[in-house]
Specification:
Length: 416
């Protein structure tokens, strides 16, 4: 994790956000507890409902309806205002009860409007519409019970229109708040998903880089170390060899060990995620003959048929992939059939691409020296070659033939 990246996710001031945002973003977390903002909002709603009830006392005469006492009207209206404290837990039931009560207790009209607004915020449209219809129709009855002065049709319908408009305004405002909260949750989910996808891409990139490193380590170090092991084995089992051969074998061992250390150092640079100042030289198609001669020097018998036209114009990727395929094939032959003859053929041209064919007997004609252990294999070399060939746009095949030989065949396109 970088130093400038925050250690925790989420808003800077979570107490100032509605708790329903967290509940909507994480539906499996149960009912959300009220945040500080929710406590303040609920308190202001109760206070606003009381204020609207007091204002209605100035507009209406509390003794206008003899069938309902003033004390009962004020008590019910006050209870309706206080019930808004529980508007988040039972919004639909509370809105229905308050709108019905507001028909006979007009001082509770403010509380019913806030309850309707709450339903629009927290419930879907299918639930809001019936309550909105009730809120629009209830003034028709309310202003018949509590007549206004002057008691004329114009005043009546103006009052009904204003009350209905307030109900519509409360619903529209509440649905706007709900839409905004849904947008916030959607953007938060999209941001989290984008961050997760970015982390996945980074993880996949690291995995591909590690696979590339493992492939390079196998292709390079396995070849070098197998050469070193073959020469060391020759010195071990032929102590009476002429001094010239011992000196030559020791020189090959020294050169192979040095080159293996150089290659290993390059791999370590990548593992430490440090960019070297310049990339080391990569093998090309022109290095294949020297690779064959190097294998012959340790005793591997090779029949090499080289028929590449336009060798000087071979692209770098094509030459490097061809070199690695030949290198892995010779290493496998040295490990599993040290006495077998390797038949190697490379044909190609810019028009036809490059075809590589290697085959050798499954077991050589001679036996290993007594006490010599077979060279270990990782079992991923051929898989790595298949991946290399696929990345280069070619085809790769390997397996036993009917003639009792092991065969590797690859075709690589010649990039234009």
């Amino acid at each position: 994790m970088s130093a400038d990246r925050p250690a925790t996710r989420g808003p800077e001031y979570p107490a100032m956000l509605p708790a329903t945002l967290e509940a909507t973003a994480h539906p499996g977390g149960g009912r959300a507890r009220r945040s500080l903002r929710d406590w303040l909002t609920d308190g202001l709603c109760v206070l606003f409902a009381f204020v609207m009830g007091v204002v209605s006392l100035w507009v209406r005469d509390p003794d206008a309806t003899p069938s309902i006492s003033v004390t009962l009207s004020l008590t019910v209206s006050a209870a309706a205002c206080l019930s808004l404290w529980f508007r988040r837990r039972w919004p639909v039931q509370l809105a229905f009860v308050l709108m019905v009560l507001s028909v006979w207790f007009p001082h509770a009209s403010g509380a019913s409007a806030i309850a309707l607004f709450t339903v629009a915020v927290h419930r879907k449209t299918a639930t809001v519409v019936p309550l909105l219809v009730l809120g629009v129709l209830s003034p028709l009855v309310q202003f018949r019970i509590y007549r206004l002065e002057p008691d004329t049709p114009l005043v009546y319908w103006m009052a009904v229109g204003i009350a209905a408009a307030l109900s519509v305004l409360a619903v529209v405002w509440g649905m706007g708040v709900r839409a905004r909260r849904q947008l916030v949750v959607s953007l938060a989910e999209r941001a989290e998903r984008a961050e997760a996808e970015q982390e996945l891409r980074v993880s996949q990139g690291r995995l591909r880089e590690r696979e590339r490193i493992a492939r390079e380590m196998h292709d390079v170090l396995a070849h070098r170390l197998s050469l070193l092991s073959m020469h060391a084995g020759a010195l071990e089992f032929r102590p009476d060899a002429p001094p010239e051969e011992i000196s030559q074998a020791a020189g090959v061992i020294r050169a192979s060990a040095y080159q293996a250390l150089v290659d290993l150092q390059g791999v370590i640079h990548v593992l430490r995620e440090t960019e070297p100042e310049e990339e080391g030289p990569q093998p090309t198609m022109a290095d294949v003959p020297s690779l064959v001669e190097e294998a012959r020097a340790v005793g591997t018998e090779i029949e090499f048929d080289d028929a590449i036209t336009g060798l000087e114009g071979v692209p770098a990727l094509l030459g490097r992939t061809t070199y690695r395929i030949v290198q892995e094939g010779l290493t496998n032959a040295r490990k599993h059939a040290p006495e077998a003859v390797v038949h190697l053929a490379i044909h190609g041209s810019p028009e036809e691409g490059v075809e590589i064919s290697m085959r050798n007997a499954l077991a050589g004609s001679g036996a290993r020296p007594k006490g010599a252990a077979p060279l270990p294999g990782s079992g991923v070399g051929l898989t790595g070659l298949r991946e290399r060939t696929s990345l280069a746009g070619g085809r790769f095949e390997h397996g036993r033939t009917m003639a009792g030989e092991f065969r590797i065949r690859a075709w690589l396109p010649w990039p234009s």
